[in-house]
Amino acid sequence: MADAAPRLTALAEDLLGVPLPVRIRAWDGSEAGPPGAPVLVVRHRRALRRLLWKPGEIGLARAWVAGELDADGDLYGLLERIAGLLWEREAGDGRRGRPLRDPGLRAAARELLRLGGALPPPPPPAEEMRRRTGASHSRRRDRQAVSHHYDVGNDFYELVLGPSMVYSCAYFTEGATLERAQTDKLDLVARKLALKEGDRLLDVGCGWGSMALHAARAHGAVVVGVTLSAEQAAYARKRVAEEGLADRIEIRVQDYRDVRDGPYDAISSIGMAEHVGADRYQEYADDLYALLRPGGRLLNHQIARRPERDESAYRIDPFIDAYVFPDGELAPLGRTTAALERAGLEVRDVQALREHYALTLRHWVAALEANWAEAVRLTSPGRARVWRLYMAASALSFERGGIGVNQILAVRPDAGGRSGLPLRTRSWSG
Fold first, then answer.
1. pLDDT at residue 313, rounded to an integer
2. What is the pLDDT of residues 196-207, one digit of tens each?
3. pTM above 0.85, yes or no
4. What is the CATH number for 282?
5. Domain end marker among 116, 149, 174
6. Tell me, what's the pLDDT at 299?
7. For residue 300, which of 325, 331, 324, 321 has the smallest C-alpha distance?
8. Range of 52's domain?
9. Residue 24 CB contacts under 8 Å (≥ 6 apart), including other chains
10. Where do Basic residues bias regions lie (predicted)?
């Protein structure tokens, strides 16, 4: 009898105490749930065993990455409804888990056991990062984390990011393509830093070299770009050589903490500070301050989370930590600006680009979906599913205001306290 979907629906509604807002299609061909609602496909009963052995986000993530869970149709609609089902909003500090109905937990476990089968726990998908060595955010462990995320193939990133090869939010004007919006973002950074011919720029977390190339080509800067990813560095060096800019751009595989050839006129840090870690953030700010000349500028482009009422309750998202950005941590905007100012920098401008990142992510998801077979060939089915889920869920989080992204312009004042900035600090916004 094909009845797995009705049984799963009844189980979920009994546990959560609310009607299920999605439709379930099970491995036995059965379906249940509201007609016309987004469809969650449970392709294999193994997904239920994962939830038995690892309840919560990791169990769900493992089932998704393994291809045992999937979406039929609108992924964004499915994720929105599931997020509303699993999480409750709490005024002022984001979200909290919806409490399960305790009397039903034991009965639910028995039902999952009957549906999923009493077998050993399935092994985690290969895409999950499980072995980490060294202290959190040590140089060795940071190299491991960066390699896990970025060294998955430059061809794969070309497929998703497009010709710009920029892996941070673009800066859109009405009707702009992704490539144009990414160029506009790079130029916005360059103009905020007031780059001019001969200025020394340090690009921290230089990625595939796009900011370095733009700064040298369009503004005449002399650039040092540092990254921990060997694949990124090789790709960036090739681009530099092809554009004939080797005399202006040096790409290094180097930890920013090991840069010793300051002072620099300007520093750009675009989408890198998320990897630093809360315990190391003051060190990051202090190091960048020391690398700037008096009057030098820093542009810090960073994703921020909403502050919690009780910061001790903050936890790193387990799916992101295991599959996407190992050891990555998001800080509230206020904590970031405070660390920069404690280091001796003066924060002069903050620009929020939250909606721009949502648009960027939707472009990336569309590119991944349009080239799905090639993305799978270049990486693995699991890796492609990781990126699709993470980018789509992140787009929704930016749209709903759960996370944001900000460009912070700071300056190292000279001995007389002079910033060197114009009276109209937004002169770059045209």
1. 66
2. 999 999 999 999
3. yes
4. 3.40.50.150
5. 116
6. 98
7. 331
8. 4-116
9. 5, 8, 9, 31, 32, 33, 39, 40, 42
10. 132-142
Tokens of 323: 């599959």
Q: Environment class of residue 123 by beta-carbon count within 10 Å: exposed (0-12), middle (13-18) or buried (19+)?
A: exposed
Whether residues 234 and 112 share a domain: the answer is no
Whole-angstrom distance, CA of residue 193 vs CA of residue 212? 13
Indicate whether 132 belongs to any domain.
no
For residue 220, the 8-state DSSP code is -
* CB 60 within 8 Å of CB 68: no
What are the pLDDT digits (tens) for 103-123?
566 777 778 788 888 677 889
Q: What are φ and ψ of residue 394, in 5° steps?
A: -65, -40
Q: By the 8 A CB rule, do 389 and 323 touch? A: no
The pLDDT value given to residue 12: 86
The pairing of strands 39-42 and 69-72 is: antiparallel
Indicate the Cα dihedral angle 58, 61, 65, 68, nearest 10°: 110
Looking at the fold, whether 205 and 100 belong to one and the same domain comes out as no
In whole angstroms, give the CA distance from residue 340 to residue 409.
10
Whether residue 148 sits in one domain with residue 102:
no
**Mean pLDDT for the stretch of residues 339-349:** 97
Alpha-carbon gap, residue 65 to 72, rounded angstroms: 15
User: Do 77 and 220 share a domain, yes or no?
Assistant: no
> At residue 354, does pLDDT exceed 50?
yes
Q: For residue 324, what are the CA distances in angstroms to 9, 161, 170, 275, 338?
A: 30, 16, 20, 11, 28
State both tokens at 57: 């986000």
| Burial degree of 312 (CB within 10 A; 0-12, 13-18, 19+) | exposed
β partners of residue 351: 407
Backbone φ/ψ region at 293: left (φ over 0), alpha (ψ -120 to 50), beta: beta
Q: How far is CA 60 from the centre of its chain?
A: 19
Residue 311 resides in a domain:
yes
Q: What is the DSSP letter of 71?
A: E
